[in-house]
Amino acid sequence: MANNHKSIYSALAANLLIALTKFIAGAFTNSSSMISEGIHSTVDTTNQLLLLYGLKRSKKAADESHPFGYGKELYFWSFVVSILIFGLGGALSIYQGISHILEPEVMKDPFWNYIVLVLSLIFEGTSLFIAVKEFNKTRNGIGWWDAIIKSKDPASFLVVFEDGAAVAGLIVVMILMGISHSFQIPELDGLASVIVGLILVFVSFILARESRSLLMGEGIAPETREKIAKLAEKDAAVVRTKNILSTYQSPEEVVLMLIIDFEDHLDTEEITEAIQRIRGHIKNEFPLVRFVIIQPE
């Protein structure tokens, strides 16, 4: 989790530094795409604050009303972030761009826009580098897309997507703004806003998909279930593992239920002892499994 905090704080600092300057530059030069970039940075700043809030809430200790803890708070706030990226980031940028395409306004001298964009690219690029570096530590050699699908910590890849979208948007805006000013085609400035918005919508769908899956109770991977089943079946009291049910309460906490067929000749005390042995072996082998419920068949 410390790594996630590092990437989130770096993204928060970058967005706070550039959001205000984008709005000032956009208003001064009458640039639609710069206003869209300002909206983008403001939404990203809000998103980082919500992620930090979700991380804090997810650490609350279990209580009577939430016996398994508050770990899913992180998944909820990650889903909220994906909705904000879509609504406040993507939709507003597209609306802003279409408005300027339908009613184009000639851009003033874009000099300060370029200064802000270059600085933004440096800040966002640095934040993206940190986020990618931290995410690489969690990949364990598997491919990027597989790592995102298998990750149970949306905070680890959400910042990567946000910063990646920000860098891509900045490059699009710089190119189209330059062409728009050079050839006096003000519609291209609006087109840049639309493209930025579409990038954000695309990112929001990916993040919403992954966050929703975790929020709805995504379980452990099939290969992990197989390892747990074999581990349980090593116990002399077990005939076979009939079923395994699981759900991630947080990136660091799994609730696991096993339905096990025990030997017929065992009495209640022997089955109880076997359950305790199996529970201990599973927790030692898989530290993320905090709760193990074993139901004899």
UniProtKB/TrEMBL annotation:
Domain Cation efflux protein transmembrane stretches: 10-216
Keywords: Membrane, Transmembrane, Transmembrane helix, Transport
InterPro entries in alphabetical order: Cation_efflux (IPR002524), Cation_efflux_CTD_sf (IPR036837), Cation_efflux_TM (IPR058533), Cation_efflux_TMD_sf (IPR027469), SLC30A9 (IPR040177)
Superkingdom per UniProt: Bacteria
GO cellular component, one term: membrane
Transmembrane segments: 7-28, 74-95, 111-132, 157-179, 191-208
Compartments (UniProt record): Membrane
PANTHER family: HUEL-CATION TRANSPORTER (PTHR13414), PROTON-COUPLED ZINC ANTIPORTER SLC30A9, MITOCHONDRIAL (PTHR13414:SF9)
Annotated protein name in UniProt: Cation transporter
Originating organism: Chryseobacterium luteum
